[in-house]
Design brief:
This protein has 168 residues and is mainly beta. The protein is built from three helices and twelve strands, in the order αβββββαβαββββββ. It is globular and about 55 Å long.
């Protein structure tokens, strides 16, 4: 067996694309307007006491410095119909929240309608990790949505849906 030792960013991106992941929108209100980022590096269950989740953000992100100081950040686990929403929020131009079904908490967390899961969070810690930072978020509230909102899956550099289960 011979493993490739090509660890260039393009080779790693291609290799890492083989691992399917969910997609999360992390959004808040800044100066009265929604701001947010999309992450496929989101992880639940980092800790149960305290309740922590995590994601990785590129050091070059222009949006993360704007939202990380917010009191609350809404995490929406995107649903299968959100592939266009994901691209819209991740866009570098235009009104990234135009026409979206948004729900805002009293603390300023912003959630997307028809998401599979909502988490009300705040920044717990940031850890430098190469060209990214790993961000730990403390969970303050949870709202699960019915199974009609199955999660969006990112795999092989594209968006996919989970097949509906077949019951005997």
């Amino acid at each position: 067996m011979t493993l490739s030792h090509d660890l260039t960013p393009n080779a790693l991106r291609e290799a890492f694309a083989r691992f399917p992941s969910g997609v999360a929108a992390l959004c808040t209100t800044v100066d009265g307007a929604p701001q947010g980022i999309v992450a496929s590096s989101f992880t639940v269950g980092v800790s149960l006491e305290p309740a922590l989740v995590s994601f990785a953000v590129q050091n070059t992100s222009n949006t993360w410095p704007i939202i990380k100081g917010a009191d609350r950040i809404g995490v929406s686990i995107l649903g299968s119909e959100h592939d266009g929403v994901c691209r819209q929020i991740a866009s570098k131009s235009g009104d990234r929240f135009a026409g979206l079904d948004l729900h805002t908490s009293d603390e300023g967390a912003v959630f997307l309608g028809r998401a599979a899961l909502w988490l009300d969070t705040s920044v717990y810690a940031e850890v430098p990790a190469g060209d990214h930072h790993v961000v730990l978020l403390q969970v303050h509230g949870v709202e699960t949505h019915d199974s009609a909102h199955s999660p969006l899956i990112f795999h092989d550099s594209g968006f996919h849906q989970l097949p509906q289960p077949v019951f005997a």
